[in-house]
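Researcher: We're teaching a course module on how sequence relates to structure. For the next exercise, students receive a sequence and then see the predicted structure as tokens, so they can try to spot secondary structure elements on their own. Here is the exercise chain.
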Amino acid sequence: MSNSPRAGLAVAGLSLGTALNPLNSSMIAVALVVLRADFGLDVATVTWVITAFYLTSAAGQPLMGRLADRFGPRRLFMLGMALVTVTCAVAPLAPNFALLCVARAFMALGTATAYPSAVVMVGALAREANVKSTRPLGRIQMANTSAAAVGPVVGGLLVSLVGWQALFLINVPLALAAILLVWRFAPADEGRERGRVSELVRDSDIPGILAFLGAMVLVMMALLDVLPGYRWWLLGGGTLLTVLFVWRELRFSPPFLDLRLLGRNRPLLLVYLGFAVFSGVYYFAFFGLPQLLQEAGGYDPGVVGLLMLPLAAMSVVVTPLAVRGIDRFGVKRMLIAGVVLLIVASGAMWLLTASFAIPLVLALTALLGVPYGVVGLASSQGMYLSTRPEERGVAAGIYQTCRYLGAITATVLIGIFYATGVNQANWGLMVFVMLGLGAVVLVVSLLWRERAA
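Model: And here is the predicted structure for the students to work with:
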């Protein structure tokens, strides 16, 4: 982005805002024990502070993308960051745990504006800097992929030095910095929908949006089993709302989500499928490995956080190289190369069934970081190329939802495999599942073709 300092600073602001969602989704994990003690909670109840964030993020990303497409990404980004600032400033004062979960939901909604808005602005920023779209998208993706990995380490330091309140307060200066950079350096929004409020509301497909949000929340609550004993009721309700959503979208014009257009866009559907399954493979390791190292390996949680750091470090180091690779060899070749590396890294994880030696763990987490950086960037670039400019906001929102679907699926499967014990034998079985999912991603990547202009 050196061709345009203004564009570079705008991308920095967008990257900072984009990092807040994955950062806050992961660093709260280290505060669960402290929150249980402070509010007198049991294990099942305290996890709602994570569930509220997950549900709101996954359901809200496509909605925020649609709003960015309709009314402008720059103003939506700043509005979202303002919501984060206010919420995180008052959240430490919450008198009870229920309000704290509400604050987490509002924080998730605010941070959900960042990635879709950033993707919508990529084209204008690339033109301003006279570079290919892979350059700004690579920087944004770098922030998106690395923030979740460093979250537990950052969260551990904040909780140990200040308390759980610091996990909210740290967002205030970060969100304000993102607002300032985007307000000062990002290009103004191009012409978007205008008109009377009644007309805008009428054309917003409110019933379709509510059906989509309701279906997403109910299905994910069923997957997470947040209400034990009601999983099948939640799944049934989610399925019913999905049917109603499809019926509504096929009849209403303009729809919240153009299902006919999406159905004809095979490249975009393949990107979503591949990225959802890829995210499942990644989160198998991201969520499953720390538990294995703590319970079976006997490592202290702080040490485990440090052992996971190479994953984030390598994904950051590899991303600029992946940008150059995509510019030179194309998206598909880099995507396939990254998936092959993913399968190799997944297979290498089987070595942990024999040893927990620190050099081995560091080497394996670093190895996994390579395909995470490559596939993450190639997938986001594939999504970008597979959509029209006026659709990129909602497309980016659904793309992020695919990440959460993969993470939630991995969490459910880890619970199944670890049900009989967190040990090396069960980890070996999980490695075989990771290899199978990696093979699915490879097939999807081979089928993908860049969408014709």
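Model: If you want an answer key for the exercise: The CA atoms of residues 9 and 316 lie 18 Å apart. The chain has 20 helices and no strands.
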